[in-house]
Design goal:
It is a single chain. The chain is of the alpha/beta class. It contains 11 helices and 16 strands. The strands form 2 sheets. Strands 1, 2, 3, 4, 5, 6, 7 and 16 form an 8-stranded mixed β-sheet that branches. The radius of gyration is 20 Å and the shape is globular.
């Protein structure tokens, strides 16, 4: 019998907020599946609009063979939403059976996207920080939903942090993130961009479309290049660099893509986060290290399938009667 389920954001948000370690494990294992060739993760497809070049809707198709699932995330990014107190991103995720190809679920996916992004970022920080959850300072450049979710992962995974410093062009957004982190028991405050850039771990979570960071980082610093386009090619080339997937990351005018064009090669990339986790290379002492995750659809897929299973098992999935009008061939 072919059924179709809808899983809403209320259940997803409540479940994810209580299971940060589960999300991190799913992200870690999915990176390893991808590293071992057990996924399909083709290029993302960008739908752009002639009268609003900053807006886009992106399709991320993928499949994971150990999970016997395929699917596609359809995520919109409209930066001007923040002017109306709307979140920049909205998304849905469709899951398909690898046995029949039939879609069997649709999930609200903006939270799935935010949580897998945050889990990836903090997992990267953990491995770049030599598997330690202690750091003197963390700096956020950007103070939106992704920054808040990343901050929450640091808190829930009990990182020991002396100071969390926040900069955002919108002062009220910076204040909101600082208040959120202070309420979570952290010593957080707003500061200048230069102060944030001096932190031990620097996290870029902005909507920047072109690089503006021209000053090189120091050898002890770890950089999470989540928004991908803040850092100049020269700064990238002066650092140790890891990606989630090299082919994906070196596209779409990301900072590493611009660095590839500048250097006419890829020697500046040491490897992937999965490569670091499996010991293919080590964190260097003489250079700062930058993690640039393009964002893999397989992460959304793996987390979405898990959430679908949990929603069905707990009665939190809406099963749509008669969604498929006809399934028999004759």
């Amino acid at each position: 019998m072919t059924e179709f389920h809808i899983i809403g954001g209320e259940f997803i948000g409540d479940y994810l907020s209580k299971h940060h370690d589960v999300v991190t494990d799913i992200v870690k294992n999915t990176y390893l599946h991808h590293h071992n060739g057990n996924t399909e993760n083709p290029d993302s497809y960008f739908l752009r609009f002639r009268n609003s070049p900053s807006d886009r809707i992106i399709a991320l198709p993928s499949a994971i063979y150990p999970e016997e699932t395929a699917g596609i995330k359809w995520i919109a990014s409209f930066p001007r939403n923040v002017e109306h107190n709307l979140q920049r991103a909205s998304a849905v995720l469709i899951l398909n059976s690898l046995a029949t190809g039939y879609p069997y679920a649709c999930l609200e996916s903006s939270l799935i996207s935010a949580y897998r992004t945050a889990a990836s970022a903090v997992l990267g920080a953990y491995w770049m920080n030599r598997q330690s959850r202690t750091t003197p300072s963390i700096g956020f450049v950007g103070a939106g939903v992704i920054a808040r979710t990343i901050g929450n992962f640091f808190v829930r995974q009990e990182w020991k942090i002396n100071d969390i410093v926040v900069f955002d062009q919108h002062a009220d957004s910076a204040d909101h993130l600082v208040n959120y982190l202070c309420d979570a028991g952290q010593h957080a405050y707003t500061a200048s961009l230069s102060d944030v850039l001096a932190c031990d771990i620097v996290i870029f979570v902005t909507t920047a479309s072109t690089p503006y960071i021209e000053t090189a980082f120091q050898p002890h610093q770890k950089v999470l290049n989540i928004s991908l386009r803040d850092i100049s090619p020269d700064v990238i080339l002066a650092s140790q660099n890891i990606c989630d997937d090299i082919e994906h990351c070196l596209k779409a005018s990301t900072s590493p893509h611009l660095a590839e064009q500048r250097s006419q090669g890829r020697d500046f990339i040491d490897g992937t986060l999965a490569g670091l986790m499996t010991g293919q290379f080590q964190v260097r002492e003489d250079k700062p290290i930058i993690f640039s995750p393009f964002g893999l659809g397989v992460l959304d897929l793996a987390l979405g399938k898990y959430l679908c299973q949990q929603a069905i098992a707990t009665g939190n999935a809406l099963t749509v009667p008669g969604f498929f009008a006809e399934t028999s061939r004759w």
